[in-house]
Amino acid sequence: MTDGAIREPRLVVSPSKTVLGPGAVEEIGTYAGSYGTTALLLASEQVYDVHGETVRTLLEESGLDVVVYDQVRPDPTVTNIESAFDLWAAEGCDVIVTLGGGSSIDTGKGVGILAANDGAIREFGVDRAGYEGVPNPTPPLVAINTTAGTGSETTRSVVVSDESTSTKFLIVSRNVVPDVAIEDPELVSSLPQSHTAFTGIDALTHAIEAYTSVKSHSVTDDFAENAIRRIADAFLRSWANGDDIDARMEMMIAQLQAGQAFGNSSVALVHGMARPFGAQLHVPHGLANGLILPYVVDFSTIAAPEKYANVARMLGAADESDGTRDAAEKASEAIFRLCEDVKLTSYLADYGEVPPRDEYLDAVGKMTQDAIDSGSPDNNPRKPTREEIEDLFVEIYDDALAPATR
pLDDT digit string (tens) for 242-286? Predict the structure, then answer.
């Protein structure tokens, strides 16, 4: 486990500009217009229906031509990215504007990869091209965030679903980091409780995994600690009252800091498991993370007790009177309680497809191999064996999934 000291050169990536606060979206035309003349505006149909015309008008008032792609889907697919790129190429676009959360941002990054590099999007996955496997920087990318969890607007990561294999693959490169991030809490106030829960747990997962990753260091630790403290203070308030703009703003800052943390120290076992888990059960990424996080924390505590003790204290589940081991063991309990407070498993009925146990068990071996192939489990403080990952998948089904379907 790292002690946080930096003893060799470390790259720290982040957007070159971040615009924070109520009304920040009104500056989108100024920033996008400084990069190009024809913007490809990417959003899901649902997000575009709420915010799309406002953003389009702001861009057009700044003199940009706007081409709209409003077919971004959750967990964007290879086909999704290729279709958006075809529109980019056909319309001669020169700047990418994403409107939404991680799915829109990842679609924008994918379009940028194809615009600046030769080859199919699948060939840039870390399992084929390795880390930093995107040779050329994407065209300018401006990300307008409408969730408080993904952190994708700060990172060099892209997660893409491959429909042909029902798996997700990861692309990691400094050449995909957005140029501008727009963080406006007024765009998040309409987010329903379900997605407030998913994205909030997603941000917490990013912060905890970054904090305990074997690649963590003092800079990423600072980002992660600040994110966890903000989440502990604001997550439940934002979930209970979506109109609490102060809580929404705190969560946007928290997810930004969590993104800066994991974008520079990497995620670990939770994400390695969540990608194939989400692909098999068709659950949103944040929900997958939340279902897995407390079990992996419980599994990992013995390898990094001081870090997990700090997590428990930041979440208010322990204090300085608790010894390190006792406090560390309370971290997973605090996360379980937080998931219960936002009724996380209750959303499975509407946002997941939980298979019968025998079908799930048949998929465990493949999910485990996909998790291992992603490389993320190698960053975990406790190195899992194949059998331990399989056991965790089974425990999660029996303890979290099966009761929720009864």
Answer: 999 999 999 999 999 999 999 999 999 999 999 999 988 999 999
Q: How far is CA 290 from CA 178, 284, 337, 386, in A?
A: 26, 10, 11, 21
Find the helix or strand (DSSP H, E) in which 19 lies: strand 17-20
What pLDDT, on a 0 to 100 scale, did the predictor assign at position 6? 77
With a CB cutoff of 8 Å and minimum separation 6, the contacts of 321 are none
pLDDT level of residue 2 (50, 70, 90 thresholds): low
Please state, in angstroms and rounded to a whole number, the distance separating the CA atoms of residues 35 and 92. 14
The pLDDT of 157-169, averaged and rounded, is 88
Count CA atoms closer than 13 A to 278's CA, side-chain side: 28
Phi first, then psi: give them for residue 239, nearest 5 degrees: -75, -40
Decide: helix, strand or coil at residue 35. Answer: coil
φ and ψ at residue 157, rounded to 5 degrees? -110, 145
Rg, C-alpha atoms of the chain = 20
8 Å CB contact between 377 and 383 = yes
Distances (CA, A) of 69 to 56, 73, 84, 119: 12, 11, 6, 22
- Residue in this structure with the two tokens 């937080």, named with its chain if needed: 338
Least confident range from 21-25, 93-97, 146-150, 342-346: namely 146-150
* Residue 315 pLDDT greater than 80, yes or no: yes
Q: Which two tokens stand for residue 45?
A: 């149909």
Q: Is 355 helix (H, G, I), strand (E, B) or coil?
A: coil
How far apart, in whole angstroms, are the C-alpha atoms of residue 354 and residue 207?
A: 27
**Would you state the pLDDT for residue 167?**
82
Structural contact between residues 271 and 358, judged by C-beta atoms closer than 8 angstroms: no
Task: Say if residue 17 is exposed, middle or buried (CB neighbours under 10 Å; 0-12, 13-18, 19+).
Answer: middle
Is the overall model pTM greater than 0.85, yes or no?
Answer: yes
Strand partners, 95: 39
